[in-house]
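Q: Hi! Curious about what DUF4234 domain-containing protein looks like structurally. Here's the sequence.
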Amino acid sequence: MRLLKFTMFLFYRYYSKGTSDRTPYFSALCAVVFLIYMHVFQILILLDKVDEVLPLNKDDDRTTKYLKMGFFLLPLFLIVAYLVKPQDLRMAKYDEGKVKRGGIYLIVYTILSIILIFVLAFIFRKK
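A: Let's find out. The predicted structure is below.
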């Protein structure tokens, strides 16, 4: 729980600056849910269960695919939103050194997670 809140805080702080400063909580929430679902997909790729869990058809139009993905992402989105409230992030105080280290770790972690999902998808692709 502490790790989830700290990760949300890092994203919240990042999105509080620049063009997304009106929706930092929503942007942070989306980023964290995206990271969690990347790991879900890594596990599904390893187990060869992607098609069974996420029923996307090649014949579906773009709107249908987006709706299916939205319904797939919604439960975790609501759980994380329930666990980490916007006021928790606004009131959070962390040591600046810890925030800098955490930001660097988060960037490296995200890059490695993206690389891993591509490697797994390449290794376990269907022929």
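A: A fun detail: The first helix runs from residue 2 to 15.
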